[in-house]
Every structure is written in C-alpha cells, then in structure tokens.
Write a structure and sequence with these properties.
The complex is a heterodimer of chains A (226) and B (253). Chain A has 226 residues and is mostly helical. Chain A contains 9 helices and no strands. Chain A has helices at residues 2-7, 11-50, 55-70, 73-83, 96-121, 125-133, 138-168, 180-191, 195-222. Chain B has 253 residues and is α/β, with parallel strands linked by helices. Chain B has a 6-stranded mixed β-sheet with strand order 7-8-9-3-10-11, sandwiched between helices. In chain B, strands 2-1-4-5-6 form a 5-stranded antiparallel β-sheet. The chains are: A mainly alpha (226), B alpha/beta (253). At the A-B interface, helix 6 and helix 7 of A face strand 7, helix 3 and helix 5 of B.
C-alpha cells in the first residue's frame, strides 16, 4: 500500500516541486547573468592587454588565459571555495555564491579574451592605416573603428560560449549551491520519480532557445552593412 | 617653402633594403607622379611621407616642419609623437584598397575624422561632407554603406574622406589599381579636378596616360632608387635612362 501511494501523482507536491525548481532557476540565472555581464567586459580588457605592446602585460595575460582555459572549471570552483581558506596568511573563506561568481567570471573572461583577441586581429590592417592617416589615435581607432567591426565577427563564437555558460552553471551544484539541477536531483531522490529531470531539461532548453534567438537578432542587426 | 622635402630616405624590411637613398622635393601646387615596376619601393616611399612606415635613415620635412632627420650615427630620429601627428594632419592619403570603414555609411566615413580628431560640430561636418560628396559626384550615395558601392564609388568616397580634413598635401597610393578598367576614369577625373585646384599631390600610379596628362613632374623608381625624373615629356617621350626606356616599352606596348 505504501509503495502504491509513493507512485501516485499529487498535484500539490508537483506545484511544490515546481516552486522550488523556480527558486533553483533563480540561482542559476543569477550565476548566468553575473558571469555574462562581468566576464564580457573583463574579457575585452584582457584581449586588449594580450595584444598590447607592453610585453610583460601581454605575457602575464597569456599565462592567465592558459591556466584558466587549461584546467577544469570544476577544479577552479573547488580551488576558490574549498582551497582558498587553507592558503597561509592570505586565505579567505568565501560563501558559496561568491565563490561561484568569482570562478565563473574569471574562467569565462579567459575564453572571451581569446575570442575578442582573434576578432580584433581579424580586422584588416588597412583599417588602422586609414584611421592613422586621418589622425585618429590608437584608442579612438579601437573604439570607433576596430571594436564595432569586431563585435559583428565575434557574435557567433560569443553566442556559443554564452550557451555553454547556461549549462555550466550546473557545476556550482558541486559546491553545494541549490541551483536548478540540484533541486531536480533532490526531488528525484526524495520522491523516487524521474520527471524533475525532465522539467530541469525543459528549463535549460527554454533558456538556450531565448539566447539563440537573441543572438540571431543581434547578428542580423550588426549585419546591416555587409 | 617646399611642401615636402625628403632627403636620402633609407628603409629596410629586415635585411632587405627597399629604399636606398630617395630624395624628393615637392613645391606647393605641384603634382608628382611616381611610376616604376612592382617592388620598386614607390608605395613604401609614399607611406614613409605620412609616417605609415618608419624610415631607417634620412630626413623628411613637411611644410617647413621636420618630422624626422638623421642623427650623427646615421639613424633616423623622429620628433615626438604629438608633433608627428600635427605634421601628418596636413597630409591626406588615399589607398589602393580604399580602406573605407565598412560599418559606416559614405557620409559617416567622411564626418568621422573631422568630428573625432578636429572636434568639429556634427552639423558643420555634415555640411562639409555633403559638399565633398557633391564634388566627387556621389550626393545620392551618402547613406549607402561601402558594401553597396562600386569600386570607383568607394574610391571617390575615400578621396572625399581625406579631403574632409582639409589637407595641404594629398598622397595617392595606386588609387585605381584595384578598380575595373571601366571604373578608373571616374576616379582619375576627381584627381584631375584636384590638380586644377592646385592641390599638392604625390600619386603612385600605373596609369601612364594619366601620369602624362596630370603630372607636373614624373619620377621613375626602380630597385629602391630614383632612376630618372623630369617633366612628363622628358620621361615619356625622350627618357635618358635605359631602364626607364625598358620599363616604358613594357607597360606602353
């Protein structure tokens, strides 16, 4: 009898689950937005530093990008949350969300830096020459001539990264943050049912669908001159 | 005062010496055509004049202001960047590949530098740009992006863009080389109009007929040196140097 009851579908518990999944979604979205909003400009700064004439700066950023792209994001997450407190003298203990924000922003900025660097360097050098011949400074050339053209070119790879980011947010589960996937898994364990995973999948699919549409629209908007 | 005085310009790319002591003086209102085979250094020389290339030795003086001169050990010593910028502001340049800004319309291409560099008011810049577009015959194309223009139209916008900075000197680096033959005429006509307005110009070109017609003086370069210079008649009709003759035979036949 007890077995039978546990398999019945209760509307009430379904809505309760949905409520907690929306809470998890909120956490997922806050990691997503904080990472996207901070790592894009940080990535641009890193790209400019990477191509700068100051060798020391360029090499430093090169090593940064190598380390952050060359190790698992999960390791970085563990390092920041579990590892930092044990560093002598400077060790800090961060709360889970702060640790998640920091690891994600630093990691994604490294990827965006490489995308922006490649984009900037793909612009014809005639654009720099024409700008210089007209008297524009390096920064004016970057801001007014090079970067606006770069945006159009980097939209497809940036869109790729942003969609990966949606799914990578699930990694913060591993440091105990109650994001969408963790809420779903807890429900599956507790109620011995499968559908919370399906609901989570639908949530991720909706997010990536909206983002795909957004980037398609952006690409169109930035293509007017082509 | 001469507009351009270049003396003993030497320029190397690595071990390759592409300019081996070029000297040239250009007076106000003069039109100079530089001709010569590919790889003779003519474009490189032109690019040295507005600091797109750094010379290894020699001196360049624009309108009485020295941009670079040889120091005691023969190297080239440039004046500080801010002065170079001020000197080069008086020089407009037109490129073989136009180098228009693809994300800006014809009009936006032209008003960019006056607004950003000269801090001109936007409506004043637009007025100037519109009159320049009229001058190059493209008033109806002001809101078109470069991708919507033909090669000849692009080059005319590029000329208008350079003129918007009110230069005293215009440099043309093979302005018609990237154009279909039937489109060169419209660009050459604009340059000819400028010559009639006494614009000081240095034109690197493969258009011998045009050089003959529009230039006050023709310079023939080969192997990083000036082989011969003189009036169009002296160069095209009775060249003194064997190399000039051989080159002209090849291109005019």
């Amino acid at each position: 009898m007890a077995n039978y009851i546990s398999f019945t579908f209760s509307m009430e518990s379904f809505f309760k689950l949905l409520g907690s999944m929306f809470q998890g979604l909120g956490t997922t979205l806050s990691i997503f937005f904080v990472t996207a909003i901070l790592s894009l400009p940080l990535g641009l700064l890193l790209a400019l530093a990477r191509i700068s004439k100051f060798k020391a700066l360029s090499i430093f950023v090169g090593v940064y990008i190598w380390v952050l792209r060359g190790t698992p994001l999960l390791l970085q997450l563990f390092f920041v949350f579990y590892g930092l407190p044990y560093i002598p003298y400077v060790g800090v203990t961060l709360d889970r969300m702060t640790a998640a924000y920091i690891s994600f922003v630093l990691n994604y900025a490294a990827y965006f830096a490489e995308i922006f660097r490649a984009g900037i360097q793909s612009i014809d050098k005639g654009q720099y020459e024409a700008s210089k011949a007209l008297g524009l400074t390096y920064w004016q050339t970057m801001r007014r001539i090079i970067l606006p053209q770069t945006i159009r070119r980097v939209l497809p790879p940036v869109s790729n990264e942003i969609i990966t980011l949606v799914k990578d947010t699930a990694l913060v589960y591993s440091i105990g943050v109650s994001e969408l996937l963790k809420v779903a898994r807890n429900a599956v364990y507790r109620d011995a049912v499968t559908y919370p995973f399906a609901i989570a999948a639908v949530f991720y699919l909706v997010m990536t669908y909206v983002l795909t549409k957004l980037f398609n629209w952006l690409e169109k908007r930035y293509s007017v001159y082509e | 005062m001469s507009m351009i005085v270049a003396e003993n310009i030497v320029k190397r790319f690595g071990n390759l010496e592409v300019l081996s002591g070029i000297s040239m003086t250009v007076e106000k209102g003069e039109v100079i055509a530089i001709i010569g085979p590919s790889g003779s250094g003519k474009s490189t020389f032109l690019r040295c004049l507005n600091h797109l290339e750094i010379i290894d030795s020699g001196s360049i003086t624009i309108e009485g202001r020295t941009m670079v001169q040889s120091d005691r050990d023969g190297g080239a010593r440039y004046v500080p960047d801010s002065q170079i910028k001020a000197i080069c502001k008086k020089i407009g340049m037109v490129f073989q590949n136009f180098n228009l800004f693809p994300h800006k319309t014809a009009l936006e291409n032209i008003i960019e530098a006056p607004i950003i560099v000269n801090k001109m008011k936007k409506q004043d810049a637009i007025k100037i740009a519109e009159s320049l577009l009229e001058k190059v015959g493209l008033s109806d194309k002001k809101d078109n992006y470069p991708s919507q223009l033909s090669g000849g139209q692009k080059q005319r916008v590029a000329i208008a863009r350079a003129l918007a900075m009110a230069p005293d000197i215009m440099l043309f680096d093979e302005p018609t080389s990237a154009l279909d033959p039937e489109l060169t005429g419209e660009v050459l006509k604009v340059i000819k109009d400028l010559a009639e307005e006494d614009m000081t110009m240095v034109i690197v070109t493969h258009e011998m007929g045009f050089a003959k017609e529009v230039a006050d003086r023709v310079i023939f370069m080969d192997g990083g040196r000036i082989i011969e210079e003189g009036s169009p008649d002296e160069i095209f009709v009775k060249p003194k140097q064997e190399r000039t003759r051989a080159f002209l035979d090849k291109v005019l036949s």
